[in-house]
Amino acid sequence: MRLSPAFQSLLTELLHFPWRNTALTLRERFREDRLGLTASSLTFTTTIALVPLFTVALAIFSAFPMFGKLQVVLQRWLVDNLVPDTIARQVLGYLTQFARQASQLGSVGLVFLLATALALILTIDRTLNGIWRVRRKRRLAQRILVYWAAITLGPLVLGASITMTSFAVSVSRGLTGGALGWLTLLLDTVQFVILAGGAAAMYYYVPNTRVRWSHAWAGGIFASAVMELAKKLLVIYLGMVPTYSVVYGTFATVPILLVWIYLAWVIVLLGAVITAYMPSLLSGVVQRDQGPGWRFQRALEIMRLLLKARASSAHGLTAAQLAKGLRVSVLGVESTLQALVDLDWVARIEDDAGAAGTRHV
Q1: Which residue has the higher pLDDT, 51 or 210?
Q2: CA angle, 218 as apex, 82 and 295 as ends, to 5°?
Q3: What are the domain boundaries of the chain?
Q4: Residue 38, number of CB atoms within 10 A of its CB
Q5: Which of 117, 302, 323, 335 lies most in the core, judged by the most C-beta atoms within 10 Å?
């Protein structure tokens, strides 16, 4: 069987992709950026903000009765794709009940709920910009407007796309006289692409720096695939080891949901790391063994290059130039440069080209 040139090219790229360096980078960034601790913080904030976000979505659909069917479809899809099957129905019931009760609060209570939802969004913004080592953040008002538009318009667009896909599959089943396997596969593929696209959009728009769409999609596909795998493994584990059901009884949904939210955030953050470090991974940087004193060694190497540039006609070096000279990732160089700047050993020369054109002397 002869493969097409495009498929052969894809296989070649996959075979030559630096899988080992990617795994080492994920391990390094998980430890250095304390992503486990960050995921715990996001889990706590998400738990508090779930009801406010759900309340906002219900309020939007209630304001436009013609979107009533979209609300049901969207609720079902979100729970089925973002929560393990063992607790999906209970979580949907609890969220709907809490959101309806929250809608009866007064103005002060609603302001508090909205502030909680915005706190989650700003935490996500700060975390992702930290992974990209972004120093210049967007203005607070600009961030709130952008994310609020995503909260209000996102559910409508997502619900409409899911409804149209489900309708197309239903029509196809009626025309073919049965539920064919390829139709189910098509619907699962569309759901996978929607989830991957949502993650890719977050990786592309949230960091206040330039991100290539191809890199964002790579991180989004990774997050979507690993999240689907994690859901299956968690369901298998809960079926084989029913510890939570035995200990917590009817309240087992709560700890299971917390565990899943934590795992989901770890996966999302790892997808962000892959997106952020994709340029370095594709350029073939050297992944060094980070033994004791590696930070100090990198700082000395940076100082050596800056001293060499000072003796020449160059007016300082950018982080990209330093990374190329050391054959390490740009983000790794920027973290060391920030430490040297804080110690007043290195100074920055701001450029009109933005952060990418900032030189160091």
Answers
A1: 210
A2: 105
A3: 19-283, 294-360
A4: 19
A5: 302
In CATH terms, the fold of domain 294-360 is Arc Repressor Mutant, subunit A (1.10.10)
**Collapsed DSSP state (helix, strand, coil) of residue 295:** helix
Flag whether pLDDT at 226 surpasses 80.
yes
- Cα(75)–Cα(78) distance, rounded to whole angstroms? 5
pTM of the model: 0.72
Q: Name the helix (H) or strand (E) containing 206.
A: none
- Concatenating the DSSP letter of every residue in 50-103 gives HHHHHHHHHHHHHH-GGGHHHHHHHHHHHHHHHS-HHHHHHHHHHHHHHHHHHT
Q: What average pLDDT does range 85-105 have in this prediction?
A: 62
Asked whether 219 and 268 are in contact (CB, 8 A), the reply is no
Q: Which residue has the tokens 């996978």?
A: 192
Residue type, 282: L
At 257, the amino acid letter reads: L
pLDDT in tens, 115-146: 777 777 888 888 888 888 777 777 777 777 77
Residue 314 near residue 325 (C-beta atoms within 8 A):
no
Q: Which of 11-15, 34-38, 276-280, 325-329 has the highest mean pLDDT?
A: 34-38
* Residue length of the chain: 361
Burial of 147 (0-12, 13-18, 19+ CB in 10 A): buried
Q: Which two tokens stand for residue 211?
A: 């991100």
pLDDT for the residue 339: 79
User: CA dist 80 to 89, 92, 236, Å?
Assistant: 9, 9, 16
